[in-house]
Design a protein that fits this description.
This protein has helices at 3-27, 31-40, 48-79, 93-111, 124-127, 130-150, 159-167, 179-201, 208-236, 240-245, 249-252, 264-298, 306-314. Helix 4 (93-111) packs parallel to helix 8 and helix 9 (208-236) packs antiparallel against helix 12. It is elongated. Helix content is 72%, strand content 0%. The protein folds into two domains: 1-111, no CATH class; 122-316.
Length: 316
């Protein structure tokens, strides 16, 4: 990326990164919100010591957010091969939250070794929603499946077609290379799995109530973030069919001015791309709608209280 594009990217990140920093500082010592978080996740009457533990839990994540936001804001245009030198700061928010959670879990693994002689193990589906896990798994499989289908249109995106797209102002339909959604899906899957594993297998506090509350929150929020990020990655893996279908047969295979009409092979390619896109697009839309409705539910607490969770895990 040229220097003027680098400066445009960095310039567009200054204000939102400052906003994230102010947000983190404002919440750093906010005991009221820490108290509300403890109650939300199943501690009905938190003590001062429990509120202090929630504050420590939040502070590790808050400390990571400004740096992670800037990193992902810079990396986004590079990964998507953005030729305009701009960045979409909104796309950095979800990975910022997820990676902040992962860093906090890594630090907690080291810090919490001496807290319990034997960590209390909790069943995975006592922490997260089965429905949310099914939706996330379906999104991961759909991203790979639709990406492989969409790749069939790649050979037809020729240099001539790219020139025609630029001439007609439709070059903005070009999306990320297939390595971005595929590698992104694998990376997000590993990060979500790590947070779920740590929430299931290690203790964060010697206090049973706050321990289970924070572990439940970590697991459910990580799953919700994974679903939300996977929706974005799915959209990056399915642009080629639409791009080919949106161009005329003459643009797909130029035949020159002396021929009678477009090449039949080009017409067949365009029709094939359009039919494939129509078939796949309806299912993709349905999956994204279901996932969008699910991720908020998956990231929030159940109506089950910590007391019920305690009795459920004690039977394991």
């Amino acid at each position: 990326m040229e220097w003027h594009k680098w400066s445009a990217v960095l310039g567009s990140l200054v204000f939102p990164t400052a906003v994230v920093l102010v947000f983190a500082l404002a919440l750093w010592s906010d005991r009221t919100r820490a108290l509300k978080m403890a109650r939300k996740w199943g501690v009905p009457e938190p003590t001062d010591g429990q509120v202090d533990e929630v504050l420590r839990y939040r502070r590790v994540r808050l400390a990571c957010y400004p740096v992670l936001y800037a990193v992902f804001g810079i990396w986004g245009p590079l990964a998507q091969n953005d030729q305009g030198g701009t960045t979409n700061g909104g796309m950095a928010v979800l990975p910022m939250f997820l990676c902040g959670a992962v860093i906090a879990e890594v630090l907690a693994l080291h810090r919490g070794r001496g807290r319990r002689s034997r960590p209390v193990r909790i069943r995975l589906f006592a922490l997260i929603s089965r429905w949310g896990a099914v939706v996330y798994a379906a999104l991961v499989l759909t991203t790979f499946a639709l990406g492989l289908i969409d790749l069939q249109a790649q050979p037809h995106i020729t240099p001539a077609l790219l020139r025609a797209a630029r001439e007609h102002g439709t070059g903005d339909q070009l999306g990320a290379p297939i390595t971005v959604p595929f590698a992104g899906t694998a990376a997000v899957l590993v990060l979500v799995a790590f947070v779920l594993w740590t929430a299931q297998n290690r203790s964060v506090s010697s206090n049973d109530e706050i321990d289970r509350a924070l572990r439940t929150r970590s697991a459910r929020v990580a799953l919700g973030l994974g679903i939300a990020m996977q929706i974005s990655l799915l959209s990056l893996s399915t642009w080629r069919m639409a791009f080919v279908a949106g161009h005329s047969a003459q643009e797909l295979i130029p035949t020159g001015p002396d021929t009678f009409g477009p090449d039949p092979a080009a017409t067949a390619i365009r029709d094939w791309a359009q039919n494939t896109y129509d078939s796949v697009g309806s299912w993709t839309f349905l999956i994204c709608i279901v996932a969008t409705l699910t991720w908020i539910y998956a990231a929030n607490p159940r109506t089950t209280t910590t007391t019920n969770l305690l009795s459920r895990t004690s039977r394991d």
